[in-house]
Design goal:
412 residues, alpha/beta, TIM Barrel, 2 domains, six-stranded parallel β-sheet, two-stranded antiparallel sheet, iron-sulfur, iron, rSAM, S-adenosyl-L-methionine
């Protein structure tokens, strides 16, 4: 068998990494190489397709160390029984690629994951070695996100957190039964145990930094996880509940959702087709409602249809408002922030602006219109000094009026 070139390895392992969605780089401590010291930065713009909450484009080299794997997870294209082209980088090759791409201004950081080869400890050692060489031998100050392996020893994962800005461990599936059926080599309690230890170490490191200026940082951008949507029979209500538990129990920065994608030579236990991509989008919207809009998980779940899934034709915030119309209309000149955040069509920035403006004068509907992209969505749920929706809020056909019209896109 001919030896693979570096480019051939990169083609295989960059493509294999596309199924991992948890590669945003928000929240890290800002570092730069001003003054001629060090290499890399966590600031600036790049060519990556990952975006921070503030809209910045984050350029990351996103690859696997290897797509060889001793596990046989049914949903994974890199499982040991899968008939795919295999490749494997050495730690030094990943380091050279990262530095080469950075110096060409292609990237500003590295997202590194891996299949499990030989053993969890061996693979985790290799991942940590990449980060160690970058940080210690090249003084690389760009962003590093390492996907850690829960089966590895706690001390190795601890080393990963000392070099990486963010670490993550995938819970893979929303339910324990789904994990047992589709990923028989993985254990839910083992995954949660590793996440719990990481949370404790992050808290400990922050406390040490308060008392000792030169105390080492530990995963300053926190930890995240990912769930696959649509590979098992878990509905959106179950997924929302699971995400809420993960945020509360492990202090996660993000829970990422990845719609299941059918793979070649798929196992018979998997669905024959992928779920709608819009379902993944609705779950992200529900995640935002819990994190930034003050919705409790059970309230978001109330927006779901009878089958436990969020509606696809309207966003979950609008679905909740339509189900609980007794809370509306809201007076934008008097209502507290908590109620304004529940008005469909009003985002956090719009609400902040309303609160600031109404300290000086009373708002009209035109004032609200300037703060939102769709005043039509807002009108049935608000009152201003010149507008009251009267019977509009209670119209039986209101959902149909507010549902976005489907449009056929044009190629030219």
């Amino acid at each position: 068998m001919a030896q693979q070139t570096l480019r051939q390895k990169l083609e295989i392992l960059a493509d294999a990494a596309k199924y991992d969605a948890s590669c945003a780089s928000s929240g890290t401590a800002r570092k730069n190489s001003l003054g001629g010291k060090g290499v890399g930065s966590t600031e600036g713009m790049g060519i990556c397709h990952a975006y921070a909450p503030d809209g910045r484009c984050i350029s990351l080299l996103k690859i696997l160390l290897t797509n060889h794997c001793i596990f046989d997870c049914h949903y994974c294209i890199n499982r040991k029984s899968s008939n795919v082209a295999r490749a494997r980088f050495t730690p030094q090759e990943v380091v050279d690629l990262t530095l080469s791409f950075y110096r060409r201004n292609y990237i500003e950081g590295l997202f590194l994951s891996s299949g499990i080869v030989k053993s969890a400890n061996h693979t985790m050692d290799q991942l940590v070695e990449v980060a160690r060489i970058l940080r210690e031998e090249h003084d690389f100050r760009g962003y590093i996100h390492l996907k850690t392996i829960p089966e590895a020893d706690a001390e190795i994962i601890h080393q990963a957190g000392l070099y990486a800005d963010r670490v993550s461990i995938n819970v893979e599936l929303p339910t324990d039964s789904g994990l047992t059926r589709l990923a028989p080599d993985k254990n839910a309690r083992q995954i949660e145990g590793a996440m719990g230890r990481t949370k404790a170490r992050i808290i400990e490191a922050k406390d040490e930094r308060k008392r000792f200026r030169n105390a080492p940082r530990f995963a300053p951008a926190g930890q995240s996880t990912q769930m696959i949507v649509g590979a098992d029979d878990a509905n959106d209500t179950a997924i929302i509940g699971r995400a809420s538990t993960l945020y509360t129990a492990f202090g996660l920065r993000r829970v990422y959702y990845s719609a299941f994608s059918p793979i070649p030579d798929a196992s018979a236990v998997l669905p024959l087709k992928r779920p709608p991509l819009l379902r993944e989008h609705r779950l992200y919207q529900s995640d935002w409602l819990m994190r930034f809009y003050g919705f409790a998980p059970q309230e978001v779940a109330q927006a779901a249809e009878a089958d436990g899934n969020l509606p696809l034709d309207i966003d979950p915030k609008l679905a909740w408002a339509l189900k609980f119309r007794e809370h509306f209309p809201v007076d934008v000149n008097r209502a507290p922030k908590e109620m304004l955040l529940r008005v469909p069509g009003l985002g956090t920035k719009a609400v902040a602006r309303i609160l600031a403006v109404r300290r000086h004068r009373r708002l009209r509907l035109d004032d609200v219109a300037r703060l939102t992209a769709s005043i039509a969505k807002v009108r049935p749920f608000v009152c201003t000094i010149d507008w009251r929706p009267t019977l509009l809020t209670d119209r039986a056909d209101l959902r149909g009026l507010l549902t976005p019209k489907s449009e056929q896109l044009e190629l030219f």
